[in-house]
Amino acid sequence: MELTGYGRATPARLDATFAALADPTRRAILARLASGEASVSELAEPFAMSQPAISKHLKVLERAGLISRGRDAQRRPRRLEAAPLAEASRWLEGYRRFWEARFRHLDVLLDELKAGPGRRGRPKRERSSR
Amino acid sequence: MTKIETLQITTPTDREIVMTRVFDAPRRLVFEAFTKPELLKRWLLGPDGWSLVVCDIDLRVGGKYRYVWQHERKGSMGMGGVYREIVAPERIVSTELFDDAWYPGEAVGTVTFAERDGKTTMSQSMLYASREARDGVLKSGMESGVAVSYDRLDKVLATMR
Fold it and tell me: Is residue A2 part of a domain?
């Protein structure tokens, strides 16, 4: 399947996303950023970790596209990026789920029509020309 | 009980969405289910809570159709178009435009039905005016799914605080 401009990087991107989420410190960092942007020192505070150690985790999160840097050049606050969660694969998946729900209703309806009165025993012949 | 078939969705070009699915019924019935209002109302539902309350169909070339879905709290959503081609029971080509279209331009839909061993393969291709329009439609379909995902993420994040 081709999805120009969106789907191409998805497998690698998802791998990076899952790898980034595999670490408890990084998940905690994301949890903190979910309530607003924060500087590296603010992020380091709750952890018994040096800033360089935190920076390393931030780099992983940044590479996965899960966080980005804010405009303030002094604080360089990090913020959560929701975009990777909305990858093209998800776009298709949501659309697919929406239609699949409809088609399941159609399956039930067609079963009824097949068994319905007035249809039973009627030869399955096409009326129209091909 | 009918086995649940898999819905295939592809995007063969920048402006298209193509859906393919097999139905365990002869195409005469599938065609009816796609063109008779009393049958469409049974399955062409919106997301949860939305029902198809208006379904007017003038099934001839140049004839119009109109659908309106309604939700008891969220209001209504309408769309319609004109039939360009009708070959019963194998092919329908029609235009499609939502009343409050969130994407630019009219779309053209082509639905085909192919029968084999009593089963029908339905293929529906939607051709949008631009890639932006096509992506807009995909994105809207995604919203419910993603809302659920975000909800889940929020919960996961909440437990980690």
Answer: no
Q: Which residues of B, range 74-93, sit inside 8 Å of A by Cβ?
A: 87-90
Please check whether residue A106 lies inside any domain of the structure: yes
> How does pLDDT run across B89-147, given as a tens digit for each residue?
999 999 999 887 777 789 999 999 999 999 999 999 999 998 878 877 877 765 544 34
Within 8 A of A97 by CB-CB distance, chain B residues are 141, 144-145
Whether A129 is covered by a domain: the verdict is no
Inter-chain CB proximity B141 and A94 less than 8 Å: yes
Contact yes or no for B110/B93 (Cβ under 8 A):
yes
A67 and A27 fall within a common domain: yes
Q: In angstroms, rounded to a whole number, what is the distance separating the alpha carbons of residues B19 and B119? A: 17
Tell me whether residues A34 and B87 touch, CB distance under 8 A: no
Distance of CA B5 to the CA centre of its chain: 17
Flag whether residue B130 sits within 8 Å of chain A, measured between CB atoms: no
Q: What distances in angstroms separate CA A6 from CA A25, A94, B132, B142, one per listed residue?
A: 29, 15, 12, 14
Residue B72: its pLDDT value, please?
Answer: 86
Fold of B8-160: Alpha-D-Glucose-1,6-Bisphosphate; Chain A, domain 4 (3.30.530)
Chain A residue nearest residue B16, CA to CA: A3
The 10s digit of each residue's pLDDT in B10-51 is 777 778 888 999 999 999 999 999 999 999 999 998 777 788
